[in-house]
Amino acid sequence: MVAAQAAYISGLGALVGLAGGVAAGVALSSAPARTMVRGPGTGAGTISVPWLFLAVVVLGLPVLAALLAGLVTRTRSAPARRMT
Fold this sequence. Notes:
Blueprint: H1 2-28, H2 31-38, H3 51-72
Helix pairs in contact: 1-3
Transmembrane segments: 7-31, 51-73
Keywords: Membrane, Transmembrane, Transmembrane helix
Organism: Nonomuraea cypriaca
């Protein structure tokens, strides 16, 4: 249960972070910001997306969190006593 919670929370955090990063990246690569960095008349540049890094962070981080949470927590329940 603890591992599932860790995977869920870190997965949601990774997805929200990805969405925020994409929004910031699109905003920074818009036309006015691009002309401020490169100067007017230099042409359109290419945007390189680090797909492998994004996949490792978005998919690997929840898996790593679940594994670590599963290793460091103990969730053994006590055996039930019988009523005689």
